[in-house]
């Protein structure tokens, strides 16, 4: 866990802002008075139900929750059609800004047509209710169309981040049993085309697979390999479809999507989210936390749709609310380091939701870059993915938020589906560095090792959630047991174990202190130490590997690996390191590439054979090595350090 400094300056809400804010004290009061009634109200107010529900929460089979179970809805209808029916068809849903400077304006009426065509195309490819579709695409409108088309058909999607490798894609396709993959020929990266379909082709050579069709959007006009049996161009199949399609209502608990995330073991977990509860909380939080006012705001969430933030806060939350948003395909520094601020100025972005790692990168580039642009439209700033250090928080407020925009530091997870702990802009007195309080309807506690609630300030413990919530994961796809073991057993079946360390400050604010398990957080992305270790040992030269997350100024944590080479493989310095880094990129994806790989003669182990990562972390962070008395061989650390100094 990282130490953080409690700040001495907090920021009281602005009265003008408060007057128009969606987040009100009454919400806290209502949720405290009647928890289920509160969520039922949210679900009725924010969602259009094809069949109203009568039961709010069924927790009788805990930890398997059912929310609004006898209700029916269609998620895509809620995100698209109903806005058109309400007379808002001309409102812009998406301002698309391409990597190449190409743009596209998509109104809600356009979105309805595009999603309908895509749904018709997918059903022509045999996709119906309950069938899984894998989506491996860059940040382009077709990705949003495809996700919504799946929702329209009741076909759960599994979006796989475009930075994942062919191997990772293969595992995910097989685990979800996806019969259709939607992809693009290539993706633009820093002004250059990079292949994407090639990874799909490769993934299908990795072994048995259920894929019948690969639907390919032409994005970069790159050369692709073509297999007539399964490959289909988007423009051949989607363009000729009717733009009319009737959305089919599904049960509230019908699966909406699977999204894989890293856990403590090597095998990624397919987090399952369902329809009614997920959409309710995504829409609710986007309204009260981001303070979206659909008729006037221009909202921009910079996440990739391959992560849960993109699911909840690009696709489902904002579109359910009928918001206008920016969708940006490119990177922050292409073609120049002011690109984001140029986009804010161009579209008059009012709400910006991004990650601390991006903010720290902009800090490094210098405040003079955003200062060249008119950012006066911005009225709310958000942060997500990891703790934001108070220094970055203040820089963000001053240089991006005009010294006045409230910042919402939002804590949540792939598993929680939507924001759980966050200040409410206009209501909360902001404390830089802290995510502060559970939002109305959510209950959290901090427990010590034995499961006793901690109430005193500065006592460090484990964050738990004490009540079910509508957008909670329902299970791990195909593995109910792992679901129970991972989340509902550490402190017994009444507490959801989040895997994060936390403490209160003297004002009762919650401070998140990082993961307590073997999960790293690199640039707000979750990576498992076990997964990278198993990628390393799959290389012929590696006998053993241990991976730790070491703190990094920009990315929060960085992957540091220690490897022991097999007999007969020489340590060729940089060449060995480079080869192993590339091997990890190939096995998992470039995001998992270790920043540092150290070849060592031994690894520190306890008498029971468990690797003591704590000691390796000391080495990776250039600290004096801590207590070594529980090591089976206490001289190992001397060997490791002597070996490293020699280099
Ligand atoms: C983990 C979840 C939630 C979408 C992005 C990441 C860390 C997330 C915060 C925050 C401190 C945070 C936690 C959490 N985290 N937001 N505001 N302050 N830590 O989703 O990949 O499922 O990762 O990210 O450690 O457990 P994810």
UniProtKB/TrEMBL annotation:
GO terms, biological process: acetyl-CoA biosynthetic process from acetate
| Modifications after synthesis and translation | Acetylated. Deacetylation by the SIR2-homolog deacetylase activates the enzyme.
Q: Give the enzyme class.
A: ligase
Q: Which GO terms describe its molecular function?
A: acetate-CoA ligase activity; AMP binding; ATP binding; metal ion binding
Keywords, comma-separated and alphabetical:
Acetylation, ATP-binding, Ligase, Magnesium, Metal-binding, Nucleotide-binding
Q: Which residues form the AMP-dependent synthetase/ligase domain?
A: 86-469
InterPro entries, per the entry: Ac_CoA_lig, ACAS_N, AMP-bd_C, AMP-bd_C_sf, AMP-binding_CS, AMP-dep_synth/lig_dom, ANL_N_sf
Can you tell me which residues bind ATP? 385-387, 409-414, 500, 515, 526
The record's listing under Pfam families reads: ACAS_N (PF16177), AMP-binding (PF00501), AMP-binding_C (PF13193)
What range(s) does the AMP-binding enzyme C-terminal domain occupy? Answer: 531-610
Q: Which cofactors go with this protein?
A: Mg(2+)
- EC numbers on record: 6.2.1.1
| Residues the record lists as N6-acetyllysine modifications | 610
Q: Name one GO cellular component term.
A: cytosol
The positions annotated for binding CoA are 189-192, 309, 523
**Can you tell me which residues bind Mg(2+)?**
537, 539, 542
Q: Which reaction does it catalyse?
A: acetate + ATP + CoA = acetyl-CoA + AMP + diphosphate
Record domain Acetyl-coenzyme A synthetase N-terminal: where: 25-79
Query: Where does the source fall among the domains of life?
Result: Bacteria
Homology family: Belongs to the ATP-dependent AMP-binding enzyme family.
What is the role of the protein in this entry? Catalyzes the conversion of acetate into acetyl-CoA (AcCoA), an essential intermediate at the junction of anabolic and catabolic pathways. AcsA undergoes a two-step reaction. In the first half reaction, AcsA combines acetate with ATP to form acetyl-adenylate (AcAMP) intermediate. In the second half reaction, it can then transfer the acetyl group from AcAMP to the sulfhydryl group of CoA, forming the product AcCoA.
According to UniProt, the name of this protein is Acetyl-coenzyme A synthetase
Q: What species is this protein from?
A: Calidifontibacter indicus
Identify the coding gene. acsA
